[in-house]
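On clarity, I found the account of how folds are encoded harder to follow than it need be. An entry of this sort, consisting of the sequence and the corresponding C-alpha cells, reads as follows:
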Amino acid sequence: MTVDSERADSTFAADGDGGSETVLGLIAAPGKPAQLVAALRDELRAALEARVPGVAWRIEVVEDSLVDPQASGTELVGRAREELLDRDWDIAVCLTDLPLRIARRPVLAHASPVHGVGVISVPALGAVAVHRKAQDRVLRLVDALLGESEEVGSSAGPGRQRRMAQRARDLARDTEDGDASGLVLTSRVLTGDLRLLAGMVRANRPWRLAARLSRALTGAVATGVLALVTSDIWRLGASLDGARLTLVALAAVGAISATLIVGAGLWERARHRGVRHQVVLFNLATTITVAIGVLTLYAALLVLALLAAFLLVTPEVLGDVLERPVGTGDYVRLAWLAASLATLGGALGAGLESDEAVHEAAYTHRAGDRSGSGPDVADD
C-alpha cells in the first residue's frame, strides 16, 4: 500500500472558514485505476476549487484494492469507510477494477452520502475518453456526497455552490470538537450540522426502509393478522388506556430499531478522537433513518389494522366478546394494539435478515447508469 498526499492552497474566498480544509481521499486499485488517479489528481483539485468556491481542498491518494473480487458493493463501501476514518478524511472516492453491483444491480458508479463514500468501476468507463469520464464521475460523486442531486438538469447556480461550500466546511470542522465529551459533541452536531444531517437522512430515503426488508415485513404482517383474529387481544385492547397503548407502541418501535441497528452492526465506533465528529454524525443519521423507517412502517400497519378491524370484526362479534356495546374507540384501541404487536413481530423478522440486506435497506445509494456511456447519474 502506498500513500501520497498533496496540500491544497490555503487561500480562501472572503466567505471561507479560515484555516480549515476539506480532505478528499482517492482510493485506487493497483494497475489502471492507480494510473488514472495519478493523472487526475492535479486536475481534480483545480476542478473542485472552481466547482466549490471558498473551500480549500486537500487530495490524498492511497493505492489499495480494499476487497477481494467476490466482495459486494456494500462491502466495498464499508472498507472504504474504514479507510476514511483511519486516515481522517472528510469524503472518499474509490476507483476499483471490479464490476460494481449495488442491491444486486450492475452500476458504473454510486455514492453513499451517509458513509461519505463514492465508488467508481473503472472497467465500466469503457475504452474511449476514460480520463474525461473518470474526472466527470469523481466530480459528480463529490456533488452527491455534499448533498446535491446528481440528476439530469440539476441546478448549477450560485445557490447550489453556496450549499456545497457550506457542507464541505461543515465536514472539515472536526478538530475543535474532537476533545468534547460524547454528550456535548452530540449536541454540537445536532445544532451546528443540522442541515448536513438532514441532507444525509433525506438521501437515505428512510420511509422506504421496511419495504426493503422482506422478512421484517412478513413477520409484521403475520403478527398483525394473528392479533386481529384473537379474542384475547380484543379484550386487552379494550382494557388499555391511551398512555399504556403509547408505551407499548414506543417499546415496539424501539425494539425493531435496536434490532436493526445492533443486530446488523450499523452503529459505528470512533477509532480515535479526530474522527469522533464524523462518527457521531454517521450514528445520528443512521439512528434517525432507522427510526423514521420504523415509524413509517408502524403508521402503515396502524392504518391497515384499522381497516382490517372494521372489515373482519363485526360490532356484534366484538360486543359479544367485550360484553357491552362497542364504538369507534374500541376499534381504534384494537388497531393500535395490533399495530404495536405487529411491529414487535417485525423485530423478530428483522433479526433474521442478513447484515448485507439491512445495510442495503438502511443506506440508499445513489447509483450510476449500467452502461457507463452516459454522463449523468440517477437515483436507484
